[in-house]
Structure formats: structure tokens, C-alpha cells
Amino acid sequence: MWGALLRRGGRGAGVLRGLASGGPPWSQVVSEAEKIVGYPTSFMSLRCLLSDELSNIAMQVRKLVGTKHPLLDTARGFVYDSRNNLQMRGLVVLLISKAAGPSTADLSFQHNMVSGIYSSQRSLAEITELIHTAFLVHRGIVNIGELKSCDGPLKDMQFGNKMAVLSGDFLLANACTSLAQLQNTKVVELISSAIGDLVQGIYYENSKSSENCLTDDIGISTWTEQVFLSQSALLAKSCQAAMELAKHSAEIQDMAFQYGKHMSMSHKLHSDLQPFVKESSSDTMAFSLNSAPAVLHQEFLGREAWIKQIREAQGKGNIMDYKKLQEAIKAGKGVTSAIDLCRCHGKRALAALERFPPSEARAALANIVYAMTRFP
Fold first, then answer.
1. Which of 140, 328, 359, 366 could in theory staple to 71 by disulfide, Cβ–Cβ 3.0 to 4.6 A?
2. Quick one: three-class SS letters along 154-169?
3. Does pTM top 0.85 for this prediction?
4. Cα separation of 215 and 293, whole Å?
5. What's the chain's average pLDDT?
6. pLDDT at 95
7. Residues contacting 130, CB < 8 A, separation 6+
8. Distance CA 338, CA 329 (A)
9. Do residues 160 and 142 lie in contact, with contact meaning Cβ atoms separated by under 8 Å?
10. Per-residue model confidence (pLDDT) at position 253
């Protein structure tokens, strides 16, 4: 499947040259993009995060300090996370809103625009971030049955789970309330379906069918479907919804959807590849055995040989030697194939951008893709 995907998407040669030449570093890309849309997206959901209700939850979360509950790491990420940029989705929604500009069918409402973006589109960007944040918080629920004594007291970990459920539900409820206030039936339908996709994608991620629950017996086509649900659907449908709010044509809405879909797929592949392409070989990063390079490695190698490599990398107490497994994957075709697939999705995202007029916002969206497809 991935080979066929690589052979498609020939349109857009002018914009696509940037993939070969590279672009500015990620931190610079985000900083310049934030200036274009008018304000730092790190404040995207500030109104909600500083509400009395969530401030009270934040005070309660302080009780988890000293434990290894993942909700703490998620909370720290809201304050500062330059590496992963939790607010990237909202930023992309704002950029594509500005890149598209006002619709010719909606010229009478241009006075409602600030920095070339409608207030409803800014609200949509905040909604997108709130939904993403809610699911990040919900993912911070630990399996009590798998806890070790070093993770923290049982009562604290149980308390952390309750906080993850309550705070995630609170954020999601706020997002749904704001969504209804947009008073656009199609947008409500799009974002509601994206929430459903997220739930389905996370369900697939957590339902292991393979022996010892370490790795799934899936090919790259199934991996792509699952990642679209859990990673790409929200951004793709939010980009489309932003075009709907500005009353753009079905064609422009589809191009915005395609950009959001393929850019986020490229982002996921870039993230999956980091343990295998980091220049520093002294520090081995743990990685998911269901990440793209591992799935492609299994597809080339065969299921039985892959399981054998995993067992050989397991030491006493089933502790995984990730260094050994990493070398095995790097020796195969999985890593180079994942890089090719990442760049393929990047090209398709850039091709979709060519339907938008040249502008600073379009250039910023292209730079995001360049940053996602550049490897050492």
C-alpha cells in the first residue's frame, strides 16, 4: 500500500522542491507562524485553563508530585513543551483560515475578521485544542494492575486516574459547549465525527490481539487507517470546518482537509522515526513496537521472524533491550521506508496547498511540512 502511495501525488512541483532543500528549524517555524496569525497559540485555551473549575483541579493534581503518574507530565506540557508543541493543531487551523481568506460568497462579513481570520475560526481553533487536550488528559490513566511500588502509593495513583477522567471530561464539555455556540450544523457534524474517530482510534490502539501484547499483527495500510482515526481526523476535519465557517467551496474545503490529513500523518511518522534517526547513538530511546518503522520492518521481514527478534531482545524479567531491537530494525528496510512514506505524505500536503493563493500563511504551512520531513 505504501509503495502505491509513494507513486502518487505528482502535482505541485513548485512547492515540493522545499522538501529536498529543507527549511527553517521547527522552533523558528512555529514562532514565525504565530506572528502571522496574531498571537502565540500557547495561549489558545488559556481562558479555559484559567477557569475556576480547572484551577481547582490543578491544585488537586499537585498531590501527585512525587509519583510517576503520567498526568503530571501532561500538565507540564500545557505550560511548556517546545519539542512536541501541544498547540500545533490550533495553529494550523488559524494558518489555513488566513491562507484561504474570505470567500467571495461572504464578502459582506469581512469586517468581522482580525488579522485575516474570522472570530468563529479562532473559536474553532480553540475548540480543536480543547478536544486534543481532553484526550491527552484521558490517556493519562494508568492500569492499576500493572503498577510497581516505585510508581507511587496506590491511593495517589487511583486519585490521579480520577483527576484524569474528571479534568478530561471538563475540557471536552467546554469544547462541545463552544462548538454549539458556532451555530453551524455542518461544523458541529464534522467535529462531532472527529471526536468519534478519536475514540475509535484510541480503542484500536489499546486492543492488542497479538501474543504477549507487545506488537500487533498489522500491515502499514491498517496502521495508516488507525493513525488517521487517532491522530489525523481531528486536524483534517477542523481544517475543513474552518473553510465551511468562511463559506468556501467544496473544493477548497476538500483541499484544507487533505492538507490537515497528510500533514498530521507526516507529523506522526516523523515522531515515530525519532528513535531511529537521532544523531546521538549513545542515548537509546524506547519506542513503540507498533510504530511505523517497526510495522514496516515486520511487513518486509515476516511475522514469525519479527516475533523471534523481539524474543531475542527480551532479557531477564521480560525487560526489553531496545538498543538491540533498534539495531535490528535499522538493519532492515523499515526506517528508510518510513522516511519515504513521511515525505510522500508531506508532498501530498504541499500539493493541496497549491489551491490556495500565495501568502505568508501558505508559506508558513509549507514550512511546517518541511520541518516534518527533514531528517539528519
1. 140
2. HHHHHHHHHHHHHHHH
3. no
4. 12
5. 78
6. 93
7. 45, 48, 171, 172, 174, 175, 178
8. 11
9. yes
10. 97
